[in-house]
Amino acid sequence: MNDFQERRQRRIDRLKERAAKTDQASSDSWKRAHDLASVIPFGQPIHIGHHSEKRDRAHRKRIEQTSRKAYELGKQAEELERRAEAAENNHAIYSQDPEALQKLREKLASCEEQQETWKRWNQLFRKHSGDLVALANVLSAGEVAQIRQRVDFRKFHWPNQEVKRAVEAYELSNNNAEIRRLKERIRTLEKRAERTARPPRYIGEIEIRDNLEFHKVELHFPGKPDDETRAFLKSSGFRWIRNAGCWARNIDARTDWAIEQLEQRCRND
């Protein structure tokens, strides 16, 4: 497991831990609310004008507040569990992953293979006029089953339309667009891998570092920047990274321009 995967797993573990603690806090609040309510005899009303009225109303309000807190904590626990599950099942390929290039190339190969398979299906489907029995002689049983499922689906939803192809044109178009997108991402990451980190440079007391592991440029200020500088940084794509204690943004064509603008602002000040 590389550093990226370890950080990802730690985030999932933190979400699960927070979900468990919040769920326990919700259960404790429900128990507390039940204990508070158990001292009131079932169906007993508030005795208006009695010396106990004020105390009774306050007690019932505590029951309501505790129950509401328990409900809200329960909803928070459900949301944390949902986020942990989503993070665990997220198979997106992130550029920060050291294995990103390998994964993208594997996905590209799969998409290209799928594209060629679909084209072959359509050619054979037209050649045999959609006869699935004839297709069984030239395709595998699994491929024929997939084509049959596609044909049955379209016949069910659009019974008055003739099925002319095994794979619709929009599916081929979408897959082709995905192939182009993957090729572009691979080219971008290959160029990124060739980049070398520049030595630290300075604008006054502001240190500028290249963090190629995360493909970011970092600005390390000696203290907290003033309001105007922070507003400029945010408008220029920089974000405060609490764990690193710096302002950072992705390295792209506008990064150097943003740093030049910052340097000009510092000179004017």
Average per-residue pLDDT, rounded, comes to 92
Task: Give helix and strand order, one letter per element, not per position.
Answer: HHHHHHEEEHEEH
- How far apart the termini lie comes to 48 Å
Biggest sheet statistics: 5 strands, antiparallel
Task: Describe the 3D structure.
The chain is an alpha+beta fold. The chain folds into 3 domains: 3-88; 100-192, no CATH class; 201-268, MutS, DNA mismatch repair protein, domain I, CATH 3.40.1170. It is 63% helix and 8% strand. The protein is built from 8 helices and 5 strands, in the order ααααααβββαββα. The protein has helices at residues 3-38, 53-88, 100-127, 132-135, 141-157, 169-194, 227-235, 255-268, and strands at 201-203, 206-211, 216-220, 239-241, 246-250. It has a 5-stranded antiparallel β-sheet with strand order 1-2-3-5-4, with helices on one face. Helix 1 packs antiparallel against helix 2 (53-88) and helix 3 packs antiparallel against helix 6. The radius of gyration is 31 Å and the shape is flat.
List key phrases describing it.
8 helices, 5 strands, 3 domains, five-stranded antiparallel sheet, alpha+beta, MutS, DNA mismatch repair protein, domain I, 63% helix
Layout of secondary structure:
Layout: H1 3-38, H2 53-88, H3 100-127, H4 132-135, H5 141-157, H6 169-194, E1 201-203, E2 206-211, E3 216-220, H7 227-235, E4 239-241, E5 246-250, H8 255-268
Antiparallel strand pairs: 1-2, 2-3, 3-5, 4-5
Summarize the structure.
The chain is an alpha+beta fold and about 270 residues long.
